[in-house]
Design a protein that fits this description.
Length: 72
Amino acid sequence: MSPTAGRVARWDSEGGFGVIESTETPGGCWAHFSALHPNTLFELRPQQAVTFEFEVVDQDGYQFRATKVWLT
């Protein structure tokens, strides 16, 4: 998939996952810290602008899962 612009809706620092919102991922895109790049980045903050790639899957109630996320 092509890179998509989004914004972090929420992030659970303790669990290492969160949700990114964008027009291309209605209902939100689940994201895990292992998808963050560079690999020295371990968490995101709500409202932070990001660019991400995603796949269509069923992940914890979301239809989309981020495969790569980096700060915008």
